Amino acid sequence: MASLSLEHIYKKYPNGFEAVKDFNLEIADKEFVIFVGPSGCGKSTTLRMIAGLEEISEGTLKIDGKVVNDVEPKDRDIAMVFQNYALYPHMTVYDNMAFGLKLRKVPKDQIDKMVREAARILDLEHLLERKPKALSGGQRQRVAMGRAIVRDPKVFLMDEPLSNLDAKLRVQMRTEISKLHERLGATIIYVTHDQTEAMTLGTRIVVMKDGVVQQVDTPQTLYNAPDNLFVAGFIGSPQMNFMDAEVKKKGEDVYLKVGSHSLLLPPGKAKVLLEKGYEGKVVTAGIRPENVSDSEIMLSQYESASFESEINVYELLGAEVFLYFELEGFSMTARVDPRTTARTGDMVKFALDMEHIHLFDKETERSIV
Ligand code: ATP
Questions:
Q1: What was the ipTM of the complex prediction?
Q2: Mean pLDDT of the chain
Q3: Name one GO biological process term (predicted).
């Protein structure tokens, strides 16, 4: 059982660089929280401060309500799994998992019980006598997890544990880790720069950029209601399409003007834009590739938000097709039905599902509606 509380946490390195700025987060017991963001955004630094491997420059870290800023790493009851899982090559799987317990002078029969229980959970029972070199990448990663599990820690910290695995194994291990979280009922904090991993694993995601938390939410909310332009662009693959658009009022109707194209806004979004004083201003409009369509149904529903464009690239991925084109100089991607007849070089009529358009302030980059 463990809850964590990070209050106004800062990390300033001796060279003066601020890697983490005013990080605030409450993590409930049994939560699976993901820290995600581009390289260098401060994810690992934050995790290492929680582990006690890095000093906290400012702020308070609590585990189960107790301040642990000055508690030694070994006394924090935390286990960390790294990306280079560094197993001892000369030891068997069993000994690799038992090693930490032996060091702590845990009685032999208890070690045996703990190692076998971890091996059962991780499906490693048949591999206990093998050496690491006789294991696959995924099996080695499971042993590394096993080493953490036998310690029965309050909190698991995982720093890109899957980044050394190939694509297929990563997907497999992702499912394993989800199941593990359920079985152990443990609190897990997991660092990755891979937004797909974040979206599929976490119950809550912390998106970071330049040492600053951008948004903390469930995967679904991050996807459907990003707080700012960065989160909108970072979460989702292929990326959300962005374009500059001027907010224009004509009679009762409000349009987004993108170059020579006028895209009619639904009344709800129009109302918010007007109320917030955006009439006549340029905003950043964002729309996900699945909300750009060449289907008859969408074209008839959103005739007032349609335009024609030449396909630059047609990409068939099996269950879906990506069409790449330009709209007034802005690069666009449409994710369409594979039965589409559109091909590279064709002029195609597209409609935007305007109920799903996101609008951001050009200066602050914050979401307007
Ligand atoms: P990655 O995904 O590449 O591991 P990250 O988000 O985990 O990135 P951190 O490792 O937390 O990033 O690093 C955050 C920033 O702090 C980076 O810009 C890094 O260069 C800087 N940094 C890390 N360690 C030190 C140090 N000892 N001294 C000065 N700056 C450091």
A1: 0.96
A2: 94
A3: carbohydrate transport
